[in-house]
## 1
Amino acid sequence: MAPSWLKKHSLKSRDDQRTKAAELTLRQSIYPIVLVTILFFLWGFSYGLLDTLNKHFQNVLDITRARSSGLQAAYFGAYPLASLGHANWILRHYGYKATFIWGLCLYGIGSLVAWPCILYRSFGGFCAAIFIIGNGLGSLETAANPYITVCGPPKYSEIRINFSQAFNGIGTVVAPVIGSFVIFNHVGNDQRALENVQWIYLAIACFVFLLAVVFYFSPIPEITDADMAFQAEETHANAAVKPFRKQYRLFHAAFAQFCYTGAQVGIAGFFINYVKDADSSYSDATAAQLLAGAQGGFALGRFVGTFLMKFIRPRWVFLIYLGLCIVFIAPSIGVPGNAGIAMLFVTLFFESICFPTIVALGMRGLGKYSKRGSGFIVGAVCGGAVVPPILGAASDSRDDTKFGMIVPLCFFVAAYSYAICVNFVPAYRNPADAFTQTKVGIENVGASEEGSPNGEGGVLGEKGLGDGETRHAEVKDDGKM
């Protein structure tokens, strides 16, 4: 017999069972949202550190821009394996908490593997470590993005995910700042710089393993397919009655995510190279600090976008932001010096809300397909593995990173097709608007404002169900793709 405390923290959940978690109020959703938001900071930090190490490996190992992009290829190439494979299987069979813990453990293991690879200057070995870390972060994103979207009143989904993702932006600011001091400030002493990077990854490993323990013992509500089917029905935006293979809005959102993420990763990954090509007087440390400043603009853009979404429909904010990414990346191709760098700064500001808003809009009305659908949208992050090598090859062909910026411009334009559809095509627009008008989680649809997420009167406890018994919803997967 398992101890009672282990049974209390069981990671197994039934997807055909309503838990009332889809009706969480703002107050009830605060704790789980805060806990999951920590994860957004973690992969923002990891991603920002990767952009800094990209340039460092070019210097230390004397490799080309195209080869150094192997870091991004290993990192983002792991995402489909996680989001469509092991992480999505765990999410669908065990739930969100189990997926969070799995992702954190992989992240920690990858960080430990990175240690000897950095010590022996093995670029291939470090790419393998980054691939393990990418699997961990891909697992976290597979669960965290949809969880933030559905944890709380659906009316505020885009606001919640953009607010949480803003802490991802803060992580991308902190990492280049640290990198500029612990890596590039040791000019001529590469061994000292690499030793400092080792300690960073050891600290990451210790922290994420500790966080995995915190998640295990935390009473966060589990949101099932039955909960999501209920939410879609209540908002009258239920498109899940169609077979999964006919969820065209989802697949278009995944395509947009592929193109957008590829462009974003390419720009950030070669930002330091761009600064050096635009003005050779800048040192690597200064260029890394400029990257931190640009990522600060990225984080600020998310807070500003989140604020605007309180007054303007999120789909309109998305249309404007992504459109301005195209407007400002285009002149960076030909404008020299600080003016070109300024164009990239503004581009990063407007990139800010695009990724999380595509996730939120793409999941509208998926109902019982929400977990499977999230795997496709997060898996599309593999665009970050495809675009940077193309950008690197284009830059190497002219020995000019400014010319390479034509690559993210093309991918931004392709992603913009989704922004147009979600604003002007009724089949896309109506489900998005239905969710922003719903009162689920705001008015009393069954969840008590006084309840807590777990415990007496809570959304997971039997007393929180109102009738003292667990209610069930018929959620059958037709097995069709």
Note: The domain at 20-439 is CATH 1.20.1250.20 (Growth Hormone; Chain: A;).
## 2
Amino acid sequence: MRDWALGDQVEVAKGRATENFILAWQQIRSPIILPLLQGAVYLCAIMSIMLFVERVYMAIVILCVKVLKKKRYTKYRLEDTRDDLEGNNNHPTILVQIPMYNEKEVYRLSIGAACGLSWPPDKIVIQVLDDSTDPVLRELVELECQKWVSKGVNVRYETRSNRNGYKAGALRDGLKKHYAKDCDFVAIFDADFQPEADFLWRTIPFLLSNRELALVQARWRFVNSDECLMTRLQEMSLDYHFSVEQEVGSSAYSFFGFNGTAGVWRIQALTDAGGWKDRTTVEDMDLAVRASLKGWKFLFVGDLSVKNELPSTYKAYRYQQHRWSCGPANLFRKMLKEIIYCERVSAWKKIHVIYAFFFVRKIVAHLVTFFFYCVVIPACVLVPDVRLPKSFHLLIFWILFENVMSLHRSKAAIIGLLEAERANEWVVTEKLGNALRQKPASKPLKKPRSRLGDRIHVLELLMGLFLFYCAVYDIVFGRDHFYIYLLLQSGAFFVMGFGYMGTFVPN
């Protein structure tokens, strides 16, 4: 009897708690939640319009470029420049920099590709900037460099006792070497990039033909795009970035963000812009903006691509996206006044850099994707009085994946704007090279072992639970059938939250 009495008391307490919660919800729902949520809908609608207008504008520019068949790089007569170089033997001296950090799987590929570039041997220097902390790996990289030296290639192996400035610091220190001062141009390749032999012949003539050009940027071509679903989705996003964003920036303004690799800089322009700085994690974009404010122009060559590798593990991709989203927002915060007060560029170009390049593409795009699709729409299911557009949203894998990643991009953008902790965090994107593809066929593959902490992602799981709750609520009480989208989106969060996205790498 006593146990029954206690049980009744517990049930009564639960009932009262539920009633109190419902009462509290009813008291704050109309005066507080409803106007806040409706305001969020309007704000997201405005940001969506801004993003839509920017996308339409870029589509119009690309359409004009395609129809007229006049991309900026097609107006140059490269054959005349090449003939002049070969006829007069007046080749400029090229410095090729390869920054690397514990790149065990790919260092041979990158060094081999750089040493295979076609250019007069006495006019090219291959500089391997090795910041590796593994002494065994350092020795292996140095041996690889010595192998190419024995073949007559001018390879310089450079190391540092610290990683001050990360990649920017390594590139900056590399340019201070005595032999670098005799170079006219510098080509930069990350450790997983493999340029074709004719890369310099297809880029340097542009810089020689136009003294106002500071940078020639090539696009990326991915060797592992078919490795898993995640790499395919990344390829879709990056193909859009190169085919549209970079092409528009090159065609309309002669400005775009340097991608940090697969590009050639005029050293004079690099120096004029103030050189490499490590104040943010996007040193490449920082340099590009500063060079643009000095009046230098950039050129994107869309038909020239360089092979490289996409991150195929979800952990590596998250770190990469944090850097790519936090860095631009932090750079925007630091350079806003400098851009506004710059007197060397037109007002129209300032508007493009501040509004389109930074604000819409680097901040609004992340925030509206996450807050509208992953917060506002689900919350409106719980508060049906809020009016939402009745259009049915595209339910494809790419949208679901991008919505999940918008959680981290939005968080990173906010961290960058506030310059909070992790604003300058730099985690090198892990590359696998051929490590997983070179296993002997006769040896049975063992099931990869991974730590639970590496597989579980709490933020994704919490968002998945929130969206799933909203979906169930909509099934029971709703009338708009948003539960279809909510269930799919919650499933995407759960898949990535439990680590079932990307390649599994054995410990």
Note: Residues 391-395, 439-448 have pLDDT under 50 and may be disordered.
## 3
Amino acid sequence: MSIAADYSEKIPNNVDLREDRRLQRALESWQPNFLSWWESMGPALPTQDVYLRTAVNVGREGWAHFGHVAMTDYRWGIFLAERNQERRIAFGQHKGEPAWQQVPGEYRADLRRLIVIQGDTEPASVEQQRNLGATAPSLYDLRNLFQVNVEEGRHLWAMVYLLHGYFGREGREEAEELLHRNSGSEESPRILGAFNEETPDWLSFFMFTYFTDRDGKYQLGTLKESGFDPLSRTCEFMLKEEAHHMMVGTTGIDRVVERTVQLMREHDTDDVAAHGGIPLDTVQKYLNFHYSVSLDLFGGETSTNVANYYTAGLKGRWMEERRKDDHRLIDDAILVDALVDGRIARTEVAALVGLNSDLRREYIADCQSGVNRWNRILEAGGVARRLRLPHVAFNRQVGAFAGIQASPDGEILPEGEWERRKGGWLPTEVDKTHVRSLMRPVYERGKIAAWIAPPRQGINGQPFDYDYVHLA
């Protein structure tokens, strides 16, 4: 049975919010603070309205409505996927037991922490992308930016609903804090490092939505397995929206590479910077940075916390129920990346302790699919150069390789050599300045900036030259 969202309510929802007046009042008192945060930290470019999709249903059939809407009037709401009355916990020591509809007392603190960390990432990316509208390469891209922003705002609502609905006073306090931390703030930064980095240009935005939102996909995928059913159902619905964010990144980089190839062929040179393009060397450096920063989001290669989350039934593996094992892992082992006698190698650890590595490997394989796609564009354009993912030890600040400096090939380097050579692997000020110099807005229908190719198709069957955004 699909449950339609109730749009007659002040807070659209499909969780019968009107049946819990206390919760409804608490969320309605949080709502003005959210709108104030959106006004001060959300998209800075003034608009009349934007062609956005709004969730209207969580059924297996169509789930979203498209139309022009003023962003301040966007109906952020609370949507959970359909409940399976027969659902049972699929892993850990509670495997086979009915999924929990309330928070088990012994796991209260751990569950709250998991929800807060996930919730903190959602407004952070909106803050990071606040000023990008001022340099949008087309109205199509501007619309996609705003779609990502409003959905990250709704994902914040999703986590706040869980905090308010299931964690009492502590949950309400945590929900307030989610609006008080800010990306890059000296006094109260966001919890995870990648969400305090700048997103100053559209190449960074495409890399962020490809690599960092993909980390979000995998984190949501593990929480979707949770024995706490409201969290599971929340994450299942969020994953529907997350797919669009990654599409923006995937096709954005497609179009950057495609335009660079066109300029290389047109001018018979690898140095397209002089012709208003982004050189492949620069694309590779941005890829190296965003990929390595995103790898850090998975934490250390080994983690007793994650082992405990799994055993408790709080957080599973990616595609847990498709795994061909006992889903308890008590006697299993896994090889994880490690420094062994000063060399990059692998070592065997208990599978439960190595779950971060298991998830990171799923992510790396997924990231490679995009690189393969971009390389097919290079091949089709007759360009011999290929993009690639750097070694897992490259530019790491978290985990086994945080204490070393490694090249993209995985060679451990002395500190001095790293400092001399890192400008060949990570964006330099010269690279960033060139990319920023290209960031001139194009707000005319059907037109696009010269550094990126137009998309192959528009949104929801509309053409590229549709009026996606009406500026104020």
Note: The chain has one domain: 17-471.
## 4
Amino acid sequence: MEILALSISLAVVICSFVLSVFVFKGKSDNDSNKKLPPGSFGWPIIGETIEFLFGKPEKFVGDRMRKYSPDIFKTKVLGEKTVVICGPNGHKFLFANEQKYFTAFRPHPMQRLFRSYKSKASPPPPPMAAHQTPREGEEVKVIRQPGFLKPEALSRYLGKMDSISHQLLQAHWEGKDEVKAYPLAKMITLILSCRFFLGTDNHERIARLVDHFDDITLGMHSIMVNFPGTIFYKANKAAATIRKELLDVIKEKKFTMATGAPMQDILSHMIVVNDPSGKHMPEAEIADKIMGLIVAGYSTVATTITFLMKYVGERPDIYEKIRAEHLEIAASKKPEELLEWEDVQKMKYSWNVICETMRLNPPLQGTFREVLTEFTYAGYTIPKGWKLYWTVSTTNTNPTYFKDPEKFDPSRYDVGEGPAPYTYVPFGGGPRMCPGKEYARLAILAFLHNMVKKYKWEVLFPDEKVIGDMMPTPEKGLPLRLHSL
């Protein structure tokens, strides 16, 4: 259906394309006198977007690294001239030069989905002064400042992660022989995200939004064609539904805050925060920012939990090591006592297993940056205004950096034997290191702790097809045979 709708949309724009191609041919290219990176911009207008979105990201990147250069190549995706800087040296260069050469950039579909509060008639922002640095992502800025994601803040929330995981496993899997891992992983992570960001425990309200969040996640990197049947159309409708629900939540939160209730969540902070002129953030803007935060904290954690269940279920030897680690922690605690920060620090082997899961199935395929000022890398010039695509796909399964890269081997991360610098970067690095790294670590470990204490499991379809590219998903939802202990 997506391809059919895309074909219709291309037919609609073909006339304008025919006219524009003549203008394009006669127009001088300011980049023509520069030594640009090797590569191809692909087809006029759409570039290589089809290959990028509908092929595997690692294949898209790997094929071009082999064809053009292992260090750098150019392409055109999602309407933007884009450069991909590859390998550990590329990671290091990017992380070391954030805010100097690059700033955060959201692809146009993502901007449309999460910026509904911005009027299309709004004037562009004023140019930056030479001494100013570009602002980081607005949602990220909101949660960095109050310290919501600092260890001391997260440690207070860890017990809630523990109890929610226990309650949902009991409610949905107790007494069952066969279950599906992916739907529960999505529900748990969405409930955790909404509890953390919104301060709400209304599980029913949250559960009915799961499919809408899936649609948004897929639509963030899609062809921006708003016809029924397309990925972007579904994402747009889903965003409207979630936005309406969030506006109701915001009104309820304001009413609760007016009664003197404590403010211990990010939504409360957004409601009371002022800009430099003393104005509060409009409700529509709060809704869009919160939606972006929940999406970021939802899909990546759910994906990692799901594939963690797959790999551990296929390896009884790994399962036994994880279980022994968690039973030792449980034995040191009183009955019904929840996890504490010190307990998580003892889950070293479990974290190695999670790291290996993320290496083989990165929860985040990549992110975009915008080039602030022209620079040179590997002998090539990257012009101002181009976009840069950062991805883990240039190193995470490369045999140069990982021996037997297709093998699931948690021992790769043992102290003193870990991956070489800048070869394993699932959370990015530098100033834009994912601020939710520690949140994700605690959420996954809290779930795993409850899982291995209560259950052993087997994967029913080891060769189950993985669908989706920017958001890898087991086609059948990862069915498991469950054994209560």
Note: Residues 39 and 128 are 32 Å apart (CA to CA).
